[in-house]
């Protein structure tokens, strides 16, 4: 079997970490005996025409054995999404033909997200009769204003209806998409994200705080509005009044970093909070292992891979009920906070500090591996590939 993976965001150089999840999944699929390539179509919808920059750029390279092709375009007509996406579709064709010339025509295309990989996958299906499936991850389909535009709603329904199968990563995301876009309730299959095997190493290892007497909380995400770090910081500030040696370590970067750092000063907790910036996968793992508790206070999550990674390392979690986490957390793994309030999150953190010994690291990690480990998820995905090719 030959599968071509189309991510909607991805690295364009070998030393970039953007879209690392898509690469990890692609390599896991290869380990299952399937031939895999990457084709990354991207579009800059905010671009303003400039004589100094080309409208279309392509690139291809071998990334540690993984053929990686990309086609990037810039918008040609301001405020016309239909024409600009058509430009992306037609611009991708020649580079796709080059991929096929180099590696053969794929049996199946696996696109991640309607915008914009799904749109291109649909075009390839129409022009080359190659079936495609979609895995939808994009939070913006629910929390942004995408649904307000007729073109967007039309293209979403079209891409989903003409795929051979649609996947989402949580039950809540499936329900939200069907409700928001008036889709049949059976539009999606739920298949969770997989957790990279590196996070299962050393599960249960005692963290540094066990030696210092501190209790260390870790979180890792983009520093954006939907991740709701203000709620986390405010709740941490309340918990700090009960446990003065509490530490909060924040991984990730984003548009709100400066504001959040100022906010820690306003709360008077800057001495107890550390902003680490962007972390590699290995650095994330190290920070989880060196912490006692992982906390997520997102307002909306399609899944919550950072939560699952923490569980893989054997660490309990406090998370707001923001959609996807409801599919991940069990009562034996931590606390799912129903109300997004400072008091409720602070109370959950305080409870976890007081009862942390009731949470068995090895059991937490094992439960996570059984549900979200690479083998389990990839076996389900490969079975789905086989079914899709039978009914194409």
How many DSSP helices?
Answer: 15
Say how many strands there are.
14
Shape verdict = globular
Which H/E pattern describes the elements? EHEEEHEHEHHEHEHEHEHEHEHEHEHHH
Question: What fraction of the residues are assigned to beta strands by DSSP?
Answer: 15-25%
Major sheet characteristics: 8 strands, mixed
Low-confidence stretches: none
| Helix content estimate | 40-55%
Alpha-carbon distance between the termini? 14 Å
Order of the strands making up the biggest sheet: 3-4-2-1-5-6-7-8
- Give the structural class: alpha/beta
Q: Can you give me a brief rundown of this structure?
A:
With 392 residues, the protein is α/β, with parallel strands linked by helices.
Report what the structure shows.
It is built from 15 helices and 14 strands. With 392 residues, it is α/β, with parallel strands linked by helices. The strands form two sheets. Strands 3-4-2-1-5-6-7-8 form an eight-stranded mixed β-sheet, sandwiched between helices. It has a six-stranded parallel β-sheet with strand order 11-10-9-12-13-14, with helices on both faces. Helices cover 44% and strands 20% of the residues. The longest helix is centred in the first third of the chain and has 23 residues, at 81-103.
Question: What are the main properties of this structure?
Answer:
392 residues, alpha/beta, eight-stranded mixed beta sheet, six-stranded parallel beta sheet, 14 strands, 44% helix, globular
Task: Outline the secondary-structure elements.
Layout: E1 2-6, H1 20-31, E2 35-44, E3 56-63, E4 66-74, H2 81-103, E5 108-112, H3 114-128, E6 132-136, H4 140-143, H5 150-162, E7 165-168, H6 171-180, E8 189-190, H7 209-212, E9 215-220, H8 229-242, E10 246-251, H9 257-267, E11 273-277, H10 281-289, E12 293-296, H11 305-312, E13 317-320, H12 325-328, E14 334-337, H13 342-355, H14 361-372, H15 374-391
Parallel strand pairs: 1-2, 1-5, 2-4, 5-6, 6-7, 7-8, 9-10, 9-12, 10-11, 12-13, 13-14
Antiparallel strand pairs: 3-4
Helix pairs in contact: 2-3, 3-5, 8-9, 8-13, 14-15
